[in-house]
Amino acid sequence: MDNLKVIVIGAGMGGLTTGIALQQAGYTVELYDRVRELRPAGAAISLWSNGVKVLNQLGLSQEIASIGGQMDRMAYYSHTGEKLNDFSLLPLIERVGQRPYPVARTDLQQMLLQAFGAENVRLGMKCVGVEQDATSVTARFENGSTTTGDVLVAADGTHSLLRPYVLGQPLDRRYVGYVNWNGLVPATDELAPPTSWVIYVGEHKRASLMPIADDRFYFFFDVPMSKEKAQESGELRAELEHSFAGWATPVQTLIQCLEPDKTNRVLIHDIEPLETLVRGRVALLGDSAHGAAPDLGQGGSQAIEDAFVLTNCLKTTTLSVADALQHYEADRKERVADIITRARKRADMIHGKDPAKTQKWYEELKYDDGTETIDGIAKTILTGPLG
Questions:
Q1: CB of 201 within 8 A of CB of 77?
Q2: 70: containing domain
Q3: pLDDT class for 387, splitting at 50, 70, 90?
């Protein structure tokens, strides 16, 4: 379809990538966000090869490579410092045809803003309602203004205000069962090798270091706890010192060198797989459509896949906007439901929902030469829209 005007609500990773893809398809794009200043949620993200391939397709291969970390190996250690395994990720990269890029969210956001045109993002515009008829869709904003177009993309995140409109009812997020702390620190040999993703596991917890650009590590800690306890946060460093007492020296070094006021503390939630992703001329995209636990590292890449598939459906389906969005839903619904389900299952396994299963995983890590891990990651990547 030609000459469409598309309204995108949400200027996060999914919304910006959608805006870029739609612009390149020749469509008029209006992009709105409720915030007055764009600041990414979270410190960094592991952008796996399926997401990177879409960015390559959009002409951003050099840009994403320049801000991505060099991650050549992956290693698991016990919480006391015993090396469980250490293997190269190059067989994975060769198999899927693209390197993954751990990347600071600020760097990624700036890259996408530059590609879309930061001046084209309209901030301080909270979309509070949607109306549509046979020929158009209208977004209504809190300040009383409206805009009308042919398609509306609801990329307004995990707390989506537009998801209830598409579903016809509200949807509560589900607490996955653990708290995550994350941030950035300078890369040093005392913490981890500069091109390795290092993960310490034990006591149903994790501590992880992942290389990103400019000689930095993206770190995270995971601790399972009840929702009631999770909501009672204390002083951040003291909380981590208590939760990771007795862990290996690099973990203790990390706790001491992180900056508490620049470290995020997040109660991890997901949503149930949705029965529908579209309503007429309105499509859910990114976390509004499939908020998942981060345990597969696929949240960002799935939003980027959404953008690619949605744009292709609009470009290649000539019957109607609604028909194009039905094709988008058919293409994405099972894929993202599978990601949500597998991420939830992995979160449970990592964080001791069944302690015997978690202990079995710890034992299996000692005998994993990387084959099983790489097979799992490769399968997720190769079933994406660009293979």
A1: yes
A2: 5-173+270-382
A3: confident
